[in-house]
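Pipeline run #58 for the internal structure catalog. This entry was flagged by the ingest filter as a single-chain record with no existing model, so it goes straight to prediction. Upstream metadata was stripped on purpose; only the residue string is passed forward. Reviewer on rotation: M.T. Logging verbosity set to normal.
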Amino acid sequence: MIIELKSDVNDAQANKLAKELLAIYMNRGDQKLIVTSSKMKGVESHYEGMIEAIHVFDSDIQLASRDFSKSTIPVKVGEVTVGGNSSNTLLIAGPCSVESEEQIEDTARFMKSIGITALRGGCFKPRTSPYSFQGLGEEGLKLMASMREKYNLSIVTEIRDATHADMVIDYTDVIQIGAKTMYDHGVLRKAGKSQKPVLLKRGFGTTLQEFVQAAEFILSGGNPNVMLCERGIRTFETKTRFTLDLCGVAYLKEYTNLPVILDPSHAMGHAYGVPDVTRACTAMGIDGLIIEVHPDPSVARSDAAQQLDFSTFGALYNSLKPIAEAVGRKIV
């Protein structure tokens, strides 16, 4: 249940009420909210003088629910806004991992040349094997930050765990929380204390309910700038890396108020299929895409099989524009 308080209720009164209700108080400036469990369906009558409105929900998808906010929450990534009244489909692209200055600069220069505004690159890699490349750590973050300064790109990079969360949040423009980190409450709560945009990826064994409830941890921490990323779930299929849940995307668009981003690279797992899957994603009228691109995928130190080279990505980028236009959107 979400309680909207009247504007004349001060913070002390609101905090007292929240404590009595075992709830969270959020002061959003133009909106004072008390958020508690969806099991709660009302409040005692002596509180009514403080209350503007009460929103009752059938699950703990509350702040992210379209029943609370009918329009998609606007999130600003650099100079680009997704959600809100925009028709933008933001294209985020770059390598799986930052491997060297030459590699990330070649990529940043190429992205800038074709009009991409957001550069992805992993610095702390949550790998399945302890013997795989784990990322350059802070050195990689410094390289990403230098690409931002040199090419005026927004940078997107991932938190692996809470041990370096503050460092990543300091460096990055968009905080990426990956599928393997989605359940790390330490990371979710740190992201909730920031006001930077968060790209939250769905775990590959996670239901839609669990996915959006993870977003609720960030939202209830005070950060409204959350984007949901579908990147494929584990099914019985073995010929692709994961199965991209476009039915789930339709649900997220219909029932949540958060921008939806799709990751066809991790879903497909093989470069040959990424362009077609990306075009299908675009046709759904989503808010963004995140694609893995490398100067030479054959020598990539992580996820080599699914990364696109510059030529293939450039052709894909051009092919997306008319598809986006056909569904009333614009690739940015």
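catalog note: The mean pLDDT is 96.
catalog note: Residues 96 and 303 are 7 Å apart (CA to CA).
status: ready for reviewer M.T.
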